[in-house]
Design goal:
single chain, mainly alpha, 7 helices, extended
């Protein structure tokens, strides 16, 4: 938790239940009326497939994150480009203005900047060494996945929403994470 006085402490939430409803009986009639399926068996198969797909995606994301974090923590940046650090600090400040009132903001922005620049340098280093680009086939596939995941109509809409640098960084990181997993 962001406040050190509260970090690691147990908490109790009191919840007032406003109402509840029992699930309707699962019948072919209910399924046909409320879903795109025709029968309970079809509905159960669809739900099973959806849950299995979500579990596969979750496992792949966990594997990707673990692989990337392994590379990130095992890497050392000898020198951080000052311009990149300054840009990342500015980005941090704009994202976390509210935290400035709580103190230690300068230190936090510096830590964020070093982490972000380290990540970007490692991604770029791996991409350069492995002759990867943001325009290669796998990167374009990742770009399409991001467009779908963020429910935007095209790359331009994604860039309008998040900015070119953020989109490029995301594609690059995902491209390198996939490379790490494949190798």
């Amino acid at each position: 938790y962001s406040s050190e006085e509260l970090a690691g402490q147990e908490v109790v939430f009191k919840v007032t239940l406003q109402s509840f409803k029992r699930a309707p009986e699962l019948t072919d009639t209910w399924v046909a009326k409320n879903t795109d399926c025709k029968s309970v068996d079809d509905y159960k198969k669809e739900i099973r497939t959806t849950l299995e797909d979500e579990a596969k995606t979750s496992a792949q994301n966990t594997l990707r994150e673990t692989a990337w974090n392994t590379v990130l923590s095992a890497s050392e940046v000898k020198e951080y480009p000052q311009e990149d650090l300054d840009t990342a600090k500015t980005e941090f400040r704009s994202l976390y203005e509210n935290y400035a009132k709580q103190g230690d903001f300068e230190e936090q922005s510096g830590q964020y900047a070093e982490f972000k620049v380290k990540q970007n340098l490692i991604v770029q280093g791996i991409m350069d060494k492995e002759n990867m680009t943001l325009e290669d086939k796998k990167s374009l596939s990742i770009q399409d996945e991001l467009i779908k995941a963020y429910s935007v109509k095209d790359l331009a809409a994604l860039v309008d929403k998040y900015g070119q640098a953020a989109v490029d960084e995301s594609i690059g990181l995902l491209r390198v994470e996939d490379f790490i997993l494949d190798n």
